[in-house]
Amino acid sequence: xxxxxxxxxxxxxxxxxxxxxxxxxxxxxxxxxxxxxxxxxxxxxxxxxxxxxxxxxxxxxxxxxxxxxxxxxxxxxxxxxxxxxxxxxxxxxxxxxxxxxxxxxxxxxxxxxxxxxxxxxxxxxxxxxxxxxxxxxxxxxxxxxxxxxxxxxxxxxxxxxxxxxxxxxxxxxxxxxxxxxxxxxxxxxxxxxxxxxxxxxxxxxxxxxxxxxxxxxxxxxxxxxxxxxxxxxxxxxxxxxxxxxxxxxxxxxxxxxxxxxxxxxxxxxxxxxxxxxxxxxxxxxxxxxxxxxxxxxxxxxxxxxx
Length: 306
Description:
306 residues
């Protein structure tokens, strides 16, 4: 462990990170937001999943610093009487989990399909890439809306609300795997012509061993770059679906469902229900994207400015 830590401290990755104040600030904010979200059960003033602690008479209370505000609700309450600060902490945790889960699924599908298409080639490559092309011809949000709507019609709204989190992971994951598939395929096409792959073939190594043991590790750098950006895209996709009523239900707060629940009341004076979750969502997505841009520059020496 000490040896690995020493190698990390002497690496170009750590050296470039220390020299980039934007990367440091983005990483720090992301870590703080992540810790706060996953600590919600312990640090949130109220449990938004405990119906006994929610009073409908406290609905639409303004933030504590306003005239009608209450010190019990620092950022006010929503239309159900839930504490906004607590709902935002729980909602951010749910949004991050959905984003990470969706990226893991789309990365797995995209890497496997891209690896097989690039190495096997021929009709297999043509078929898999045509499937990717067809899916890319539709917007990610459109694919997600179609899958979500079909599931709700087939199994009902109550079943959808019960399985909302895993379903959103699957929906967003299936909608965005072509990004990984095409990138990995392009990397594999370049790698499989190199001498180390030819040497592995000559000594009789199995095809699957060459693919997963030799080629795959050399194609993971672009996957890491894509993943940092795709986490932000997945969080935005969840927020967009929830805003359209096809994502998280109102009873399970996410940043998107919180924005949706207060949108129709924003012009009646209850602006905080939408504004605070919206600012938090934008902050989360921006810091992830800034961190992704930095990772891209570090892993691509041609783009990195010394």
